[in-house]
What we know:
Layout: E1 2-7, H1 11-22, E2 27-31, H2 55-68, E3 72-75, E4 78-83, E5 89-93, E6 96-105, E7 110-111, E8 127-128, H3 131-134, E9 142-146, H4 150-160, E10 165-169, H5 179-186, E11 191-194, E12 197-204, E13 208-215, E14 221-225, E15 228-231, E16 235-236, E17 267-269, H6 281-301
Parallel strand pairs: 1-2, 1-6, 2-3, 6-17, 8-15, 9-10, 9-15, 10-11
Antiparallel strand pairs: 4-5, 5-6, 7-16, 12-13, 13-14
Helix pairs in contact: 1-2, 1-6, 4-5
Amino acid sequence: MFDTIIVGAGPTGMTAAIYASRRMMKALVISKNIGGQVIWASDIKNYPGIEFIGGVDLINKMRQQVKDLGVDIKIDEIRKISKNSDKSFLVEAGKNSYLTKTVIIAMGLEPKQLNLDKENELTGKGISYCANCDGPLFKGKNVAVAGGGNAALDAAEVMSKIASKVYLIYRKSQLKAFESLILAVKNKNNVEMILSSEIREIIGDEKLKKLKIVSNISQEIRELDVDGLFVEIGHEPKTDLVADLVERDTLGQVIVDLSGKTSCDGVFAAGDVIQSEFKQIVIGCGQGAVAALSAYKYLQVGK
């Protein structure tokens, strides 16, 4: 029987594990991967106390800290979480089942898709959702980035150092990323910004070959010869796993109070998966700490 099981191994889940361990709670982290979205961030320059660090480096430091504290991390896909009659929870992951007194939901977000024909078919064959993961595969080639937020601009900046040509395609006329990031990308000679335009068609059989884009202003259609497409149009919560346990909003985000409590006693949530306007690493870490401390308090007083 665990005191808490933390679902997710990104910065939020790792911080929750650290704080749970320091309260001498028997904790377990279960996640389908290590790091979540943070591994897609190449340059992190706004984490307090650290002037500059890569996303992979940051999560590796957190992982080592969690390991040193004696908290086990299981890489597995959770199939079901159910509440028992004695108020404990059964967490089924892969072929294993675990009992826990509390659950902390910190599974973060997953990338949105363009929902175009051949997108799924060509994922891994030219289409990617992680420039930092797959960028090196496109050295000296032509690539496109879809999106206009921080993630898209970061991907374009990363790929400008790797690819021969980078097309940044965004459906609106104004980018919505940090001004410093926009300026950095605009100064790249091999980046072409194609605004007020959308990808209409993905072309390719065994691998991606072309993109057909359309201008939202003139309706002009243009074809781009590309070897890679990085889809960076945002992320969304995949919370069907806990749909029967906790209340969610219309976007699928878990509803919590200021202490991270959900509508289900014993279940807490933190990070990008909750109704938080700002999705930042440092915010997720803070919320992870709050959720762990609230879970500890729940075990002490029962509410």
